[in-house]
Amino acid sequence: MSSDNIEHLKGLVSQLQAKIERLEKQAQQTASDAKHKVGEAVDQAKDAVKGTIADATGAAQKTLTPAQHLRLVLMGPPGAGKGTQAPKIKETYNVCHLATGDMLREEVKKGSELGKEAKKIMDNGGLVSDEIVIGMIGSQLENNPECQLGFILDGFPRNVTQAEKLDEMLAKRKQPLEHAVQLLVNDNLLVSRITGRLIHPASGRSYHKEFAPPKKPMTDDVTGEPLIQRSDDTAETLWKRLETYHKQTDPVADYYKKKGIWTGVDAAQSPKTVWASLSKIFEESKKQ
């Protein structure tokens, strides 16, 4: 092969290499552009999703009614029907049911700082302080997803000092109480109610041998688990408990009356009628 042909081939190879380099650069640029465009598209999609979520959240907040932001203290003597009505309120309005006894047991079981402190006091036979109980309520409102739309407080406050401390904590959270509902029943009727009461320990659901019996005797309708009768559900014990209840709760009811959020409900009626009265209270608050 002549030297001219060799030089010609070298020239072709050089041109080919230059073309390859150009194509590689173009490919890299195209890939870079594509990556950039994909990145932009992903960012836009993220922004769109965030916007949709924000719009949905905002719309939800606008459409949520006062009843769906239910913040309620439920008061009533033993046997008034709190164990029947509280679960219905919880289910209907998607709020959490905070019973002080249950909260204490839960915190002790979890081994939280509040639980350890409470256990130490209870083991020594003492009464858990208001600060600990209010701390537990605050912890539930902060961490329990069920409390996002509100809460039912059951068994607290028991005196005016506790009510004032509770209001102070809720004011800091900008979650003031909306309702203080008291179930009202004649004491003599309560005695007959209580002595026939049956309890499902795990859920707190209550039945009555005569007025609201379970579908199957001594058996919870939902879980099929056995029901119990509390050892303190005797007439003698109940009269003492009612005396303590009135002494403690009447001033609390007066406190909430002065704040304009108290409502009394005749709980001597059937559970269905009581529920209708409660629903009416919450529905009317929507219109205000």
UniProtKB/TrEMBL annotation:
Xref: Gene3D superfamilies: P-loop containing nucleotide triphosphate hydrolases
Binding-site residues for AMP, renumbered to this chain: T100, R105, G126, L127, V128, G155, F156, P157, R158, Q162, R230, R241
Region LID, annotated ranges: 196-233
Transmembrane regions listed in the UniProt entry: none
Residue intervals of the Adenylate kinase active site lid domain: 197-232
The keyword ATP-binding appears for this protein: yes
Pfam family, one: ADK_lid
Keyword Metal-binding: no
Protein's cellular compartments: Cytoplasm, Cytosol; Mitochondrion intermembrane space
Keywords noted in UniProt: ATP-binding, Coiled coil, Cytoplasm, Kinase, Mitochondrion, Nucleotide-binding, Transferase
Segments for region (NMPbind): 99-128
Domain comment quoted from the record: Consists of three domains, a large central CORE domain and two small peripheral domains, NMPbind and LID, which undergo movements during catalysis. The LID domain closes over the site of phosphoryl transfer upon ATP binding. Assembling and dissambling the active center during each catalytic cycle provides an effective means to prevent ATP hydrolysis.
UniProt record similarity statement: Belongs to the adenylate kinase family. AK2 subfamily.
The name this protein goes by in its record: Adenylate kinase
